[in-house]
Amino acid sequence: MTDLIKNSSSPWRDWPIDREIVLSRVIDAPRTVVFSAWTDPDQIQKWFGPEGMEIETKEIDLNPGGAWRFDMVSPNGARYSSRMVFLRIEAPALIEVEHGSDQEDDPGTFRMLVTLDEQSDGKTVLTLRQMHPSKERRDWAIGFGAVEYGGQTLEKLARHVVTRGQSKGDTR
Fold it and tell me: Do 147 and 140 meet the contact criterion of CB atoms below 8 Å apart?
């Protein structure tokens, strides 16, 4: 995966590490199943977001150039508008998006790169990199809870694919 980034014109190649947040998780499911959970409009709405958040989708097109516009709604009713614009999808290994609030020219918009590496035991290592526009913006996101909430989101994804595999019969 690293060679894909080094040998491309991607902004990831030269990005300063002080602007990054990196999360990783081993998921007990094949890479194609995890990839499908990210790229199937019906599935992503079921697991995305921190614990307790509900997703209300306004628009969803999970293809390069497409956008997913949605609100994350907390148990107390607070709404967090979001927009992901899908920049690059390379099945079943890589998804790159811009993620921010659902407003034009959001100064907090960050780039997110999700890579999926299938292991010899059939499990998938998911690495999620957030590339923030500045160190200050990254620090703000960490203070807001980006690492904890990101971990909760990946936990929900792991539960979703395991439950889905059990209900549809594991295809490993």
Answer: no
Number of domains forming the structure of the chain: 1
Per residue in 103-123, pLDDT (tens digit) is 999 999 999 999 999 999 999
Strands (E), 11-158: 20-27, 54-60, 67-73, 79-90, 94-100, 110-118, 124-131
CATH of the domain at 150: 3.30.530.20
Q: Does 145 reside within a domain?
A: yes
pTM: 0.87
Asked whether residue 26 is assigned to any structural domain, the reply reads yes
Classify residue 48 by its DSSP letter.
Answer: -
Q: Which domain holds residue 122?
A: 2-49+89-167
Taking only the tens place, the pLDDT of each residue in 83-99 is 999 999 999 999 999 99
